[in-house]
Amino acid sequence: MSLPRIPLDKWVDAFIQWLQIHFKPLFDLINGAIGPTVDFFQHLLSAVPPIWMILLLTLLVWLVSRLRIAIFAFIGLMLIYDLQLWSDSVLTIALVLTATLISIVIGIPLGILTGRSDKMKGFLFPVLDFMQTMPSFIYLIPAVFFFALGNVPAEIASIIFAMPPTIRMTSLGLRQVSGELKEAADAFGTTSWQKLIKVELPLARSTILAGINQTIMLSLSMVVVGSMIGADGLGKIVLQSISRLQVGKGFEAGLAIAIIAIILDRVTQNLGNAKTAAVNKKTPMVIVRKWLTIATIIALLGMTVYSYVGDGSGKKKIVLTYVAWDSEIASTNVVKQVLEKAGYDVEIQETEAAPMWEGVVSGAADAHVCAWLPSSSKIFVEKYKGQFDDLGPNLTGAKIGLVVPQYVPINSVDQLNQYRDKFNGQIIGIDPGSGEMQLTEKLMKQYQLNGYQLISGTDASMVASLDKAYKQKKWIVITGWEPHWKFLKYKLKFLDDPDGVYGGPQSIHTIVRKGLKKDMPEAYAILDRFHWSKEDMEEVMLKIHDGMSPDQAAAEWVKSHPKQVNEWLGKQ
């Protein structure tokens, strides 16, 4: 006997939709608080040239900790600067500081409540258990629905994941304060507030700081996870390295994250340790550290003002989002270069297919040039019908389907079952949220490819599998699309799809948010005029594959095609 399935997923979806409708003002308020806080820390750390900021941060680390930690901070930060990761590291630090600050503001009061009340502890600690045991990726789903793409939803996920240690350790610290000391405070007639401020919190200080230390470390661990929904910084570089199999680049970004983690860990640990020196003694070193601390604080406050006064670029900002497919990396970076020529400040956000569409629909992003129609993006077009503007094709003659090397002697999808062992029962795919993967799942049911497993991955991992099999003349079948540079490097062919599951010829459309035409008519017009050929796209893709950065490859293409670019800009 089988029990009826509880529709928990539908209940959760309905609850999320209800929250979206009825709590939108609250989410707007949260968004309005977190975004400026991240910007504040980012401006503060970027107000002066990196070398001067590194010196100031080194001085600050020495003032609040020890000389050897300051030396390590200087060497580590200089290495980050040398690796050209300073701006990304600044944003990562800003994200971590914001998440930590909010976790402290919320977590310490909750920790005080649980430390003083057994009932509150019994209620809140199971919630904290849930927050800590739930996989961190799960927090990205509601964060995207409530706050779309970017740093804010990533911060929300980080706060939820990283806050529990602050609450737990604050509660533990208060409960570890000696009962005799509390009784003595009561005997001297202190109020409950005085006892908390002058007795309990000072004695629990080291334990509370240990909790904050763990919150900082957990916030850093969410850096890469948050990049999956558009957060910038070092996590974005790690995600790009994973999706493109760039081991060296990923190692550099990972090393930078490790350096930041060690610095923050050692500083907060040192703050939590009891002071061994008699700081009240007017020794020369104590006096020097005191005045240097004051001077550093004044300098940081001055830079805070400067960071806002001197930040007026006068450029309008436009946000483009894209999926980490080689074709879309090429097209998005070319559009970025063209919009920058028109005077716009362009931000590009790499994410998965579903968040990409959600970002444009919600207004968190302004546009994407990645809609494969009528087949691959059909599911998103139907889901968000009427909530975006389709500017039409920017490239025609595209194609999607299953692809094999030309040396494989089959020509149709319905022949795959005959040679399952030759293909090891695997179809090598890309990211699981893409429309092409969902169509491939449908195709496997249509052709009863029951003995096959669809392997998820990335564009880069799929090509890596193809390259390895191709060199050894092994049989392999992949999810493929054209235009793509792999058709220039390898001799490949599409398998016929008699039932038309993948559809016929495809075109790639430009999708923009509602209201863009009114808000930025010039950018809207440029996006509307953007159109190029398969050969153009493959030219950029091949340069990227050969080792050129996407930004540099796009810039070279734009420079060598002035007539085409001027047409998009409306100059001809």
In what range is the share of β-strand residues?
5-15%
Q: Helix amount, in percent?
A: 55-70%
Total number of β-strand segments?
Answer: 9
Number of helices: 26
Distance N terminus to C terminus? Answer: 72 Å
What is the structural class? Answer: alpha/beta
Q: What value does the Rg take, in angstroms?
A: 28 Å
Report the biggest beta sheet as strand number plus sense, adding barrel if it closes: 5 strands, antiparallel
Principal-axis shape equals globular
Low confidence ranges: 274-281
Question: What is the averaged pLDDT score?
Answer: 84
Which key terms come to mind for this protein?
26 helices, alpha/beta, 572 residues, 63% helix, two-stranded parallel sheet, five-stranded antiparallel β-sheet
Written account of the structure:
The protein has 572 residues and is an alpha/beta fold. The chain is 63% helix and 11% strand. The protein has helices at 8-22, 24-46, 50-64, 67-82, 86-116, 118-133, 140-147, 151-162, 164-176, 179-187, 192-203, 205-226, 234-244, 247-272, 284-309, 326-341, 353-362, 378-383, 435-446, 459-471, 486-489, 516-519, 521-529, 534-545, 550-560, 562-569, and strands at 317-323, 345-351, 367-373, 388-405, 426-428, 453-455, 478-482, 492-494, 506-513. The N and C termini lie far apart (72 Å).
